Amino acid sequence: MKNYLLSTHFDLITEDGFIVDVKKVDEKKVLITVKIKDISDAFLGFEAKSENILFNLKSTLAQLGVDAIKKEIDLNKTKKTAEVLVEIISHSPLAQKMISLLKKNDYVGKLFVQEDSRKVRDPLYLTRMFLRKDRFNRPLLSFKEKKDGELILEKKDGYTIAFLPIKKGKLTYTKEIENFLPALSKILSCKNYPTRELLKLYQKFETNEKTDIQKEECLLVKTDPLYIRTVFAKVSENFLPKGFHHTSACILEPNTLASGDIYEFYGSSSLELKHIPLEFYTLEPHREYVFFEDRDQLKEKLEDPKVLFNAIKTAPKPENQLASVYIVKGTELDKLNETSWIIKDPKKHDFPGLDEPEVQAHLVEKYIKEQPSYPFLKAIEDGLITSQGILLTRHFPSPLLKKMLLSDTIQRNVKGVYFQYPSRSNDEFFSHEDRAFLLDLAKFAIPVFWIDNASKRVLQYVLRPQKDAGMFVPISLINEFRKATFFGVYGSNLIAGKFDEELKKLLNGILKLREKVDHPLLCKNTPLALVTGGGPGAMELGNKIARELKILSCANLVDFRTNGFSVVNEQKINPYIDAKMTYRLDRLVERQAEFYLDFPMFLMGGIGADFELLLEEVNRKTGSSPANPILLFGSNDFWREKITSRFQINLKSGTIKGSEWVSNCFYAIQTAEQGLKIYKDFFENKLSIGKKGPVYKEGFCSNY
């Protein structure tokens, strides 16, 4: 699968070969030995049967009436060479003069593999390319230089055949052509010289000439230019009129701006030629300009978690090594094995930063090139990969690849990033740079999917509407996530308290309440989501109840593993989480800011819960969160000891002047009924809350 990265040439064809030996047979025939060097490892001819490999003569020679028949072939994959014994035949007096001038080192033709499995069957494969363009705004398929084309495509004997109408008349040569032949002979020793353009100087189009064919002559006809970038085309002998034969210069390549408009025939027939029949061979999947929307099988497989989990398991061990592969077809997912992947083990560098900008730039560039995704992204940049597909990678890509992934060329091609582990060094916890990268990918419409071992599900990164934050969400719940009103439970990771029944009643009551109220945050069609910190204790209680009530259960998880110098109780992630985002410990404040709760609820908690309570208070004071009610589960005495002394000192000192109203956002409750009454009044706009509401001297309302 990685062969397409090894060569700029297609796998069905070689470069031009040159003559290493010439032997005259008679005036009309010579035997030549052609050597072809530096053949790509990807060339399918190394494994093909000899009869399926044809020698495609240089079209310049064919237009002079020269033809070629392959006699023997010796392919050497180790040396990447081929030697081909070819019989050169003349079909006209002009061709006879030309073959007498052939000599060693003349470039005369190449090999092409007629691989049946690559023949185009369905005409739709080609017609869908009309109106589509490559990254340089060039059409992928056009005929008569019209965008919509007039190419007649039919299905014959199970394969697609195009019938190109020829222009009325035929090409002939001026007398000066014979004087040009010696110069042409010299030019042939120059590889890739555009000889066809020189030949046009001696050609003239006779519009009144018939397109029948006689022995000892070569019929040259013209069509409008066929511009085709997505396949090889080959003149199909089976659908030519009886008595007509095309020369062995029968292949139209996809890497020219005008694939062909002159065709050369020999034979004998009184019939007139009216159409050129062409059959087609697909390029390598990565090179055929296929759009993701057309890959029905790939899209279907990507919707099956089992396929993705099986695919990621094929990545080579050990698992701490980075590994990536680029997939464009559904069948590639089924055929993945260890050799399909590019693996890397880049060493981390201490980047010096702006103090040494040149060293910094060098180390960053070096690190980027050590990433396993780099060869695929570079191949897209260089035009070696033209089909749209997905990047499958063991670890989430390094943020240093941002410049490449978000470039116009790569962003057009990469239609999804699928990964198994967020981090090689921090397991499932994303860094700050990772999360910023996720935001950028989402905004550039590159979907990101987590093949998550913990949940045994495939999760997609989804942004919260109007928020610069997102979570990884089960694909089936994305619509629910985007539309949901978010409730949240804060509390101790050590104890759950005795609130389970009341919390369940409260959430169940909210589900029923939405059938009766009509509020922007709660109405009949509003999904509910509940967010916790994802740990044990009160957080586990909240997530468990959400799952039981079929409320979307979410968590913002923090890596609380410490270096042994701080006292943080290990927080095992609870098993009741649907959607999640992960954070490292040094970004605890950012994590808290990204809860974005519409309706927070606090159970009994310690220092962490105190911190979260203060942040919710600050959010309302500053206006970053609206003045929605915050419920405090527990006795009034517990919350007085937590809140009142601080609020009253601030009130007395005047340090919260103008913000005293924030106290009316907090409500201590002991039962679900109390909480539901507060919510009902709020959703019916009967709750006195916000800047115009009362100031509660205890810092919260204790008897609503």
Give structural notes.
With 704 residues, the protein is α+β, with helices and mostly antiparallel strands. The protein folds into 3 domains: 2-287, no CATH class; 290-453, Cytidine Deaminase, domain 2; 461-704, Rossmann fold. The chain contains 20 helices and 31 strands. The strands form 6 sheets. Strands 19-18-20-21-22-23-24 form a 7-stranded mixed beta sheet, with helices on both faces. A 7-stranded parallel beta sheet has the order 28-27-26-25-29-30-31, sandwiched between helices. α15 links the parallel β25 and β26. α15 packs across α16 (538-548) and α15 packs parallel to α20. The longest helix has 18 residues, at 636-653. The protein is elongated, with a radius of gyration of 36 Å. It starts with 16 loop residues before the first strand and ends in a 21-residue tail after the last helix. The mean pLDDT is 91.
Main β-sheet: number of strands, strand sense, barrel status? 7 strands, mixed
Helicity range: 25-40%
> How many helices does DSSP assign?
20
Uncertain regions spanning at least 5 consecutive residues: none
Q: Which secondary structure elements does this structure contain, and how are they paired or packed?
A:
Elements: E1 17-26, E2 29-36, E3 53-57, H1 59-62, E4 66-76, E5 81-90, H2 93-99, E6 107-113, H3 124-127, E7 141-143, E8 152-156, E9 159-165, E10 170-173, H4 177-187, H5 195-199, E11 203-206, E12 219-228, E13 231-235, E14 244-246, E15 251-252, E16 260-267, E17 275-282, H6 296-302, H7 305-313, E18 322-327, H8 330-335, E19 342-344, H9 357-369, H10 374-381, E20 389-395, H11 402-405, H12 408-413, E21 414-421, H13 432-443, E22 448-452, E23 457-463, E24 470-474, H14 478-483, E25 485-490, H15 500-513, E26 528-532, H16 538-548, E27 552-559, E28 579-584, H17 588-593, E29 599-602, H18 607-622, E30 630-633, H19 636-653, E31 666-669, H20 672-683
Parallel strand pairs: 20-21, 21-22, 25-26, 25-29, 26-27, 27-28, 29-30, 30-31
Antiparallel strand pairs: 1-2, 1-6, 2-5, 3-6, 4-5, 7-12, 8-9, 9-17, 10-11, 12-16, 13-15, 13-17, 14-16, 18-19, 18-20, 22-23, 23-24
Helix pairs in contact: 15-16, 15-20
